[in-house]
Design brief:
Elements (H helix, E strand, L loop, with lengths): L46 E4 L18 H13 L3 E2 L2 H9 L8 E8 L2 H13 L5 E4 L1 H5 L5 H9 L3 E4 L12 H19 L5 E3 L7 H9 L4 E7 L11 E5 L5 H12 L2
Parallel strand pairs: 1-3, 1-8, 2-3, 3-4, 4-5, 6-7, 7-8
Helix pairs in contact: 1-3, 6-7
Length: 265
């Protein structure tokens, strides 16, 4: 299953993403709902995938990729109530393959593309919980002013991890040679040089990948990569095709709980 990613210009509602979700079609939740998300296999953890944290703009082509700030905050509160604690993908990887450790119920909160609402809305909410997040940042979001370097640095100061989402959000399965290396390898170099932080993971735009793209990600020095395939991330999984859980506008706490419950045992 391949799910979409988002591209939004400042103050303008553009068409968002490609593909559809295969998650259960559950309604948004009311506040205070307590649903047990189940027990995950040893070492497994959900990597949640968010896009815009805002109300749906009029005429948005993919309204499911907008999550209202109050819904996002309710989802974070529900996760905390269920004993989850947010960690970076790097910390999860270290626990899997090194000598690191994670909480009893880790969850990775990831944001694709690099959208202004991720700074203005998601960052303050994550700070309320003292949780880090993962920003899958496309370089063009900086070049176009969707996010500024100052904004990203403030996210880094709050503990956020910066990972690459290419330069131009191109389908990497349509690229080869120098163009593939530029979108995958050069994007890592640019982000590392601009922010002085490790850029150890890659996120495939729109979840599209093939053997050549995976090889390019590995050759560029990344430790792993995330897809849009629905599932839990696991140490038994190929680190270059890690599953995630997309959170949609219509999910709310009920939908998120139902999805995690189906993935749990």
């Amino acid at each position: 299953m391949l799910l979409g990613c988002v591209g939004v210009g400042i103050g303008v509602a553009l068409a968002l993403g490609q593909g559809t979700s295969e998650k259960p079609g559950t309604p948004a939740a009311s506040g205070g709902l307590m649903m047990d998300p189940g027990t995950f296999a040893a070492g497994s953890a959900p990597i949640l995938m968010y896009h815009a944290i805002s109300e749906v703009p009029p005429g948005a082509a993919s309204p499911e990729l907008f999550v209202a700030p109050e819904d996002f905050e309710a989802e974070m509160a529900w996760l905390a109530d269920q004993g989850f604690e947010a960690v970076t993908l790097g910390r999860l990887y270290d626990a899997w393959h090194g000598d690191g450790n994670v909480p009893a119920r880790p969850v990775v909160i990831s944001f694709d593309d690099g959208l202004q609402s991720q700074f203005t809305e998601a960052l303050p909410i994550m700070r309320e919980f003292e949780w880090p997040a993962v920003l899958n940042l496309k370089v063009s979001s900086l070049d176009e002013g969707e996010l500024t370097e100052a904004m990203v640095n403030r996210m880094i100061d709050a503990g956020w991890e910066i990972d690459s989402h290419t330069i131009s959000h191109l389908d990497v399965t349509t690229l080869d040679g120098a163009s593939l290396e530029r979108e995958i390898g050069e994007s890592r170099t640019i982000l590392h040089e601009r922010f002085g932080v490790p850029v150890d993971f890659f996120c495939y735009p729109a979840g599209q990948y093939d053997a050549e793209a995976v090889a390019a990600v590995r050759d560029a020095g990344y430790l792993g990569a995330t897809t849009t395939t629905l599932g839990l991330a696991s140490p038994a999984e190929d680190p270059y095709v890690l599953d995630r859980v997309r959170v949609d506008n219509s999910d709310g706490v009920t939908g998120l709980a139902a999805t995690l419950g189906e993935l749990g045992s």
